[in-house]
Design a protein that fits this description.
This protein has about 325 residues and is α+β, with helices and mostly antiparallel strands. It has 5 helices and 11 strands.
């Protein structure tokens, strides 16, 4: 009697099973990637909320936000020594003042504010990678130049910069020497200064950690540097929209394929006109911290007028929530 039992799959059946599995993988992979990105974006939001809490704690103690950078707004250069009246070496970036307010008191104590950030005495502090400034969607970078270069600070970069208005380093949109945003040279806003409303004014935005490729000492990219007070390091402008194809202007490396377009300008006499836009690795937009401590996701498609209005603190623009 002939048996109808089959001992194995036929080749055609095996190919069909393999094809079905491949289709399922193709369908599931984007969902898995989307879920992972959602988790990374949530961690990014949490980082900004923690920074917002630190800003509010700082404001409660000091009655104002920390200064954007320790420079003289009248000249755009170093601050003046109160005793001698001469320009001093005191160059404090924004990141230093906020350290004690997110459990980095020891790092704050180790930082010598009477010296440049890239001196040997500040090596311990400036080489700390501050996790609160790291967006998990981006790739961590360390600023560097050629080994043995005269100025080679090797400071880890970050993903969150302060709102620096709508124009450039010295002119935030209301002319030079005037603070139009909550952070400026020698200036941190009081809540009373933010007459547009804390829920309508940006405090911090995402920025990309641009890599510094090997090459000459000029082949570096300062975008994303937290410890350097120079222009277009952590000062984020709304000159153009989020993740714009329009280029930043800085000491940088033009890499539009990686979403990092830039006009490289190594002329230090023009550094006060440098600017850097908000950028992230999140699909479709960037996260932004408002002065009231809330965090919003701003789409790449946001109109330029409301985006720029969010960067001013006392211009009187009327912004509705459906505009962003």
């Amino acid at each position: 009697m002939k048996s109808n039992q089959r001992d194995a799959f036929t080749l055609i059946e095996l190919l069909v099973v393999i094809a079905i599995i491949a289709v399922l993988i193709a369908l599931l992979l984007p969902a898995v990637q989307a879920a992972r990105e959602a988790a990374r974006r949530m961690q990014c939001v949490n980082n900004l909320k923690q920074l917002g809490l630190a800003l509010h704690n700082y404001q409660s103690v000091n009655d104002r936000f920390p200064i954007g950078v320790a420079r003289n707004p009248l000249t755009g250069l170093n601050v003046l020594d109160p005793i001698t009246g001469l320009a001093s070496n005191f160059k404090q970036p924004f990141v230093v003042g906020l350290l004690p307010y997110y459990e980095q008191q020891s790092a704050f104590n180790a930082y010598n504010m009477n010296l440049l950030f890239n001196t040997a005495d500040n090596l311990t502090t400036r080489t700390i990678r501050l996790l609160i400034y790291q967006c998990p969607s981006d790739t961590p970078q360390v600023f560097g130049q050629l080994a043995g270069a005269a100025n080679d600070p090797r400071d880890p970069k970050g993903n969150y910069g302060v709102n620096w208005g709508m124009k450039d380093y010295w002119d935030q949109g209301m002319g030079t020497k005037v603070a139009a945003a909550p952070f400026y040279m020698g200036y941190g806003a009081k809540f009373a200064d933010i007459t547009d409303g804390t829920s309508n004014t940006l405090a911090m935005m995402e920025m990309r950690q641009a890599p510094s490729p090997n090459g000459t000492p000029q082949a570096v990219d300062r975008r994303g540097r937290l410890w350097n007070d120079d222009s277009a390091c952590y000062q984020v402008s709304t000159r153009f929209g989020p993740n714009s194809r329009l280029p930043d202007q800085s000491v940088c490396v033009h890499d539009p394929a990686q979403g990092l377009p830039c006009i490289n300008n190594t002329d230090s006499s023009q550094s006060l006109t440098f600017y850097m836009g908000a950028r992230s690795r999140h699909p479709g937009g960037v996260n932004g911290l408002l002065c009231d401590g809330s965090v919003r996701f701003f789409k790449d498609s946001i109109g330029l007028p409301p985006w720029q209005a969010l960067s001013t603190m006392r211009s009187g623009e009327v912004i509705s929530s459906d505009q962003f």
